[in-house]
TrEMBL record:
Classification via InterPro entries: V-ATPase_116kDa_su (IPR002490)
Any one of the GO BP annotations: vacuolar acidification
Annotated stretches, region: Disordered: 312-360
Organism the protein comes from: Halostagnicola kamekurae
Keyword line: Coiled coil, Ion transport, Membrane, Transmembrane, Transmembrane helix, Transport
Membership in a protein family: Belongs to the V-ATPase 116 kDa subunit family.
Name this polypeptide is given: A-type ATP synthase subunit I
Transmembrane segments: 398-420, 440-472, 492-512, 524-543, 587-608, 614-631, 643-663, 706-728
Protein topology in the membrane: Multi-pass membrane protein
Length: 767
């Protein structure tokens, strides 16, 4: 649907004694998006959580912490059926105690393991020296230092030190050991003093009398033992996960419900005796809400549909319709009288029920339920990359479904690439559970399908033209236009891009017109219709035969009966309405036809609309902005550019592998790949289907011997992978840009709230 699902604002008013029953019933129905009371009513405060909320929250935190420790998810286990049995708190405490003990022990072992690994790493340099560790420490008259640095720099520094009278160095694998006899005037660390200014990393000597090898061996034994203990702990935690996973998930579900219900009064307006709860629900569900509450609490509450309304561009109600529900009175307009609201508040504060006044006490924007058909659902993801539509806006998701995959396929158009895009899309859609990934997969399949469709029309598979020769006796109906013989198609894609842009932008202006009808037909016209008329009239004149001699010939030849795409279009007729008087300087005698008249009327009314906003300055603003209707349409030429760029890249990749020979035909030069014969062989043959083979563009790695063929295969595969990936970044991003920047700017603001009915966990999801 182009409109989000219709919503109604409802209120439920009753005494505090039935509030818990009302909350439980509404939660079970899962229909109402609760509104938050802002404290604006005199005598009414936000309610307090129901008794036990804090305890339930603490238990919920405990359960979720255990699930995190156990790495438990709904994919690992199913929640136990039925309600929690008596004594479940003791069971939860037992699980918590055991899991925490194991987790604490695991942390201790990980700390020990890290220390052991660090000690192993520290002893490695000493093993490189081949000296027993007890020989590197414990001396009174000799200073010993071990580290990593330049042996030459170390020896030079020690040699020049006055505090050292003799020294010896040992080295291995970049590790240097220095044993030095200090002079009588030396300090406590003569080697350290000598190495000041030298880049040298010192290593502390382990306190042991073992050889480095034996020391490392002992440490490795400790490491193996610690890792074995970790495996035992992980196995025990896995056993707990398998045995108690269903129970924990069930506990989380019930505690989540309990916490939600217990904290619901925080959103209500309450007094000592009564409460008022308001919220939004789909209009069609109102009767089910009334029936559900009446079955539980009967006449103890007053249920009222406050607003079933149209909304302004800020999303707030402007008027209500006649609302009929059984014996309830109809409301034909939004009630704003202070007296009626005051009476309602006083009645509720005294413990009574609100009368059917229609007074909205919690003013908020209606949440949005996007009600799209199944195939369009994945494209809601593309829309939410910007923002969710407001309730008052049209939902353009269905247009994304109809245009984005078609744009994508039009730009790439290759059966081989389309099969790969479809395959990857199906893999993402079928193998993953995340909504975002599945949406991307579905979009990929749609884009791949249109890429295959246009690939058949272009007669291409991985840039080769064999498909067109197989399926069509006279060649494919469409060409990408990079070859001289088919260069007219490149001009056709330029014009096709312009026509696509005109259609796309016109739909955008229509959507904007519908959105702005709330402000009146005149306002909607000045904001949208005038721009649409200016754009359509201008481009109709560009494609009209008026002044044909001064315009590029391909505007009228490309789609003519003799053109590459013969649909019989040779330009719009002038359809003269009147001629300007001869006295008009520079324009005397000019025929003003329907296209110019449409453009002129659109321009004048557009400028008038700007004057209404900005005063006299609007004349300048409108005049400058009028050029947008020309530039915005030209922006769609990027589609033709992508067609030619990707076709050229695929051609180069195939040319490097297969080689290309040039055939001179009546229409111009055709380039043929050397798929069956080497290009040089075709040149020696001299002809191809009766036409002269004039030259070899490239001989092809395939025909240059085994080694060159192997290199060619690598280039062929890598090249097409690059083209495939660049197709996503170019066709995909350019298509998205045309949707977001050109199309959406005509009518779309976004900023809607997601509909989150009270009754389910408010988890991160993409619905």
């Amino acid at each position: 649907m182009l409109r989000p699902e219709r919503m109604s604002k409802v209120s439920v008013t009753g005494s505090r004694g039935v509030m818990s029953q009302v909350i439980e019933t509404i939660h079970g129905l899962n229909l109402v998006h609760l509104s938050d009371y802002d404290g604006s009513w005199e005598g009414f405060d936000n309610g307090d959580p129901i008794e036990g909320a804090e305890t339930a929250s603490e238990k919920l935190v405990t359960v979720r912490a255990l699930e995190s420790t156990l790495d438990l998810s709904v994919e690992d286990a199913n929640p136990d059926s039925g309600s929690l049995e008596d004594g479940w708190e003791d069971r939860l405490e037992s699980i918590r105690t055991r899991v925490n003990e194991l987790d604490d022990r695991r942390s201790e072992i990980n700390d020990e393991l890290r220390q052991v690994n660090e000690r192993i790493d520290r002893v490695a340099p000493f093993a490189a020296l081949g000296i027993d560790l007890d020989l590197l420490s414990g001396y009174d008259s000799i200073d010993v230092l071990v580290g990593e640095g330049s042996l030459e720099e170390v020896e030079a520094a020690v040699e020049a030190a006055d505090e050292i009278r003799a020294y010896e160095t040992f080295t291995g694998d970049g590790v240097v050991a220095i044993a030095a006899a200090p002079a009588e005037s030396a300090g406590d660390s003569p080697i350290d003093d000598a190495l000041v200014g030298v880049e040298f990393t010192r290593h502390d000597v382990p306190d042991t009398d073992q050889t480095p090898e034996a020391y490392v061996s002992d440490l490795e034994s400790q490491r193996d033992e610690l890792e074995s203990q970790l495996e035992e702990i992980d196995a025990e935690l896995e056993e707990i996960k398998q045995a108690e996973g269903g129970f924990l998930l069930r506990a989380e579900e019930e505690l989540s419900v309990e916490v939600q219900q217990a904290e619901a009064p925080l959103q209500f307006a309450t007094t000592e005796h009564a409460f008022v709860a308001e919220g939004w629900l789909p209009t069609d569900e109102y009767d089910r809400l009334v029936s559900g509450l009446n079955d539980v609490v009967g006449d103890s509450v007053e249920i009222e549909e406050l607003v079933r309304a149209d909304y302004n561009d800020e999303g707030y109600p402007t008027r209500t319709e006649a609302v009929e529900h059984g014996d309830s009175e109809d409301s034909s307009e939004t009630v704003t009288k202070e007296e009626e609201e005051r009476e309602t508040r006083e009645a509720v504060a005294d413990g009574g029920s609100a009368t059917a006044t229609g007074a909205v006490t919690m003013v908020d924007e209606p949440p949005v339920v996007q009600d799209n058909v199944g195939p369009a659902k994945p494209f809601e993801f593309l829309l939410r990359l910007i923002d969710r539509p407001k309730y008052s806006e049209l939902d353009p998701t269905i247009v994304l479904l109809l245009t984005f995959p078609a744009f994508y396929g039009f730009m790439l158009g290759d059966l081989g690439y389309g099969l790969l895009y479809t395959g990857v899309g199906y893999l993402l859609y079928s193998q993953f559970d995340q909504d975002i990934v599945r949406s991307l997969g579905a979009i990929g399949m749609w884009a791949g399908g249109f890429t295959m469709l246009f690939g058949i029309l272009y007669g291409e598979v991985f840039g080769l033209h064999v498909l067109g020769e197989v399926l069509f006796s006279d060649g494919p109906p469409l060409r990408k236009g990079i070859q001289p013989a088919f260069s007219q198609f490149s001009q056709a894609w330029l014009l096709a891009s312009v026509f696509i842009g005109l259609g796309h932008l016109t739909v955008g202006y229509i959507f904007g017109f519908i959105n702005d009808l709330e402000h009146g037909v005149g306002e909607a016209y000045f904001e949208n219709g005038s721009w649409a008329l200016l754009m359509i009239g201008l481009w109709m004149w560009i494609f009209s035969v008026q002044g044909e001699g001064a315009k590029p010939a391909f505007l009228f030849e490309t789609f003519s009966s003799e053109g590459p795409i013969p649909i019989g279009f040779s330009g719009f007729p002038v359809m003269e309405v009147f001629s300007l008087p001869e006295a008009v300087p520079g324009l005397g005698g000019l025929a003003v036809g329907v296209p110019l008249l449409i453009a002129l009327f659109g321009f004048v009314t557009m400028v008038y609309g700007e004057v209404r906003h900005y005063g006299a300055l609007g004349i300048i603003i409108g005049g400058l902005e009028s050029f947008n209707v020309f530039g915005d349409v030209l922006s769609y030429l990027r589609m033709a550019a992508v067609i030619l760029a990707k076709a050229g890249m695929a051609f180069v990749v195939n040319m490097l592998f297969f080689g290309v020979y040039v055939v001179e035909t009546d229409s111009g030069a055709e380039w043929h790949f050397g798929t069956t014969h080497a290009p040089q062989h075709m040149l020696e043959q001299g002809t191809y289907h009766g036409y002269e083979v004039s030259e070899v563009m490239f001989s092809g790695l395939l025909h240059g011997g085994i080694l060159m063929a192997i290199i060619g295969v690598f280039i062929l595969v890598l090249g097409h992978v690059v083209v495939l990936l660049l197709g996503i970044t170019s066709a995909g991003l350019q298509g998205i840009r045309l949707e977001y920047v050109e199309f959406f700017n005509r009518f779309y603001d976004g900023g809607g709230r997601k509909f989150e009915p009270f009754g389910r966990e408010r988890l991160d999801d993409d619905n």
